[in-house]
Structure formats: C-alpha cells, structure tokens
C-alpha cells in the first residue's frame, strides 16, 4: 500500500537542472561506476525481502536505479525525483529497458511531498541530503524511520567536504560525444556557517571551437556523517560507516 507523506508546505523549488540535465550523466557515470561494488554489497548483505520496496531518493537520470536493480533483481523500486528535466533521462532509461520498466515506479516530487509505500526495505539517499536543511532532515529521519521494515536499512552519503570552505575552480569531468567534448568545472564558496555555494561551469567544444558555455549555482548544506548519525539516533537508528565507499557513506538501521 502507498501512503501520502504529510505535506510540509514547502514552496516548490525551481527546476535547477533545466540547463544541465543533458550533461548530468557525464558527471554521474564515473561516480556510479566507482561506487557500484560498495552499494551492491550493502544491498545484497541486508535482510531485505524480495517483496520489499526500495526507495531511491533523488534518483536523477537513473544511474542509481540501475545499480539497485542489479543488486536486487526482484524488488519493486520507487524512484523519487523532483526535477522534470532529470526525469526525462530517468523515464528514457526505464522505457528503453523492459526489465526496469516493469519494476520501477517514479514519483515526480520532493521527498516531503511524495506518495511513498507504508513499509520500505531500503532507502537509498545518495548525492542529495545536502539539499535538505535541518528542518527537512528532521522530517526525513522521522518519516523514514517509521516506514523502515524491522530489518530495513537506509544508505546515505555526504560530500567529502564536511565544512564550508573555498574550493578553487577545477575540471571535475570531461567526456567526448561524437566530435564534441564536454567539460565540467566546479568551484565553491562558503555563504553561511553550514552552506557552500557550488558553481558549475559547463563547456561544449567542437575541436578547439567553443560552442556553448553556461554556469549554474546550487547551495549545499555541508556536514559530515557524524551530524547525520546524531540526527538518526533521535529516531532510534544506529549507523555503520562504509570504509570501501569512494564517498563518505553510512548504513542506518535499527539496533
């Protein structure tokens, strides 16, 4: 049974990926290749029934969905993604793969507004918890904890940067598609005690000829796993870190 999550009344955010969604997989493909083994090991090692829902929060274009589906070949998957631009890539991936198409449902909403299953075997929250402020995280932990099955888990990650700091401009990704090359640069500036403003610059080249250049900015709440462990503990959850993960990550569950 699916249950409508209590709506918290947050105003819908603009779609921050309108310009950049077409290049998102250039950023995420290598990332998910690097962490695939760690995620698969966690999911296969958990006590998850084949009928349990797996909820992927911030599913993006579906790179994470594909990894989840490979790790757990029988479970229904719910992909939660608020960005319409990102869902174009997600739905294209699902429709092109009959197996995914049969198993993966999509929620076009942020976590606080999504219709979710009453019980969930695992939550995957990768690359998005920093978009939640303290109030939204408190709601997430409370809501997630009440939906988890007794042996359920939540896999949550954070950035390697655990406090606001200056991050000098560097090229974070580059890929060739046909005769074009796509470069993505990242830099960061602290704007609050717990917030860093990321600026991403996207460039498209044909040989040495620059075809396009644009920038986007996103604000990210910066913290380490220790803060998440403290927040989760208030809802009766414990955590174990994943030393083999290429990004700081932990598995949360009941004691």
UniProtKB/TrEMBL annotation:
Membrane-crossing residue ranges in chain numbering: none
Alphabetized UniProt keyword annotations: Methyltransferase, Transferase
GO molecular function: methyltransferase activity
InterPro entries in the record: Methyltransf_25 (IPR041698), SAM-dependent_MTases_sf (IPR029063)
Top-rank taxon: Bacteria
GO biological process, one term: methylation
Keyword Transferase: yes
Domain annotation Methyltransferase: ranges: 54-152
Protein name: SAM-dependent methyltransferase
């Amino acid at each position: 049974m699916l249950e409508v999550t209590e709506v918290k009344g947050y105003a819908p955010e603009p779609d921050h990926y309108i310009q950049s969604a077409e290049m998102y997989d250039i950023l995420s493909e290598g990332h998910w290749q690097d962490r695939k083994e760690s995620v698969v090991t966690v999911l296969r090692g958990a006590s998850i029934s084949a009928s349990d829902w797996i909820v992927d929060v911030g599913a993006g274009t579906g790179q994470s969905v594909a990894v989840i589906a490979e790790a757990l070949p029988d479970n229904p998957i719910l992909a939660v993604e608020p960005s319409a631009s990102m869902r174009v890539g997600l739905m294209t991936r699902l429709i092109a793969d009959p197996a995914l198409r049969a198993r993966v449902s999509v929620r076009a909403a942020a976590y606080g507004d999504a219709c979710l299953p009453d019980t969930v075997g695992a939550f995957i929250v990768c690359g998005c918890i920093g978009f939640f402020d303290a109030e939204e995280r408190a709601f997430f932990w409370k809501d997630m904890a009440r939906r988890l099955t007794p042996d359920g888990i939540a896999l949550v990650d954070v950035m390697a940067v655990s406090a606001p700091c200056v991050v000098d401009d560097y090229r974070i990704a580059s890929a060739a598609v046909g005769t074009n090359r796509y470069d993505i640069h990242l830099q960061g500036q602290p704007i609050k005690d717990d917030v860093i403003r990321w600026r991403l610059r996207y460039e498209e080249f044909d040989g040495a000829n620059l075809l396009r250049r644009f920038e986007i900015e996103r604000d990210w709440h910066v913290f380490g796993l220790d803060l998440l462990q403290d927040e989760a503990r208030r809802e009766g959850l414990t955590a174990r870190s994943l030393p083999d993960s290429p990004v700081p990550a932990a598995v949360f569950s009941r004691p």
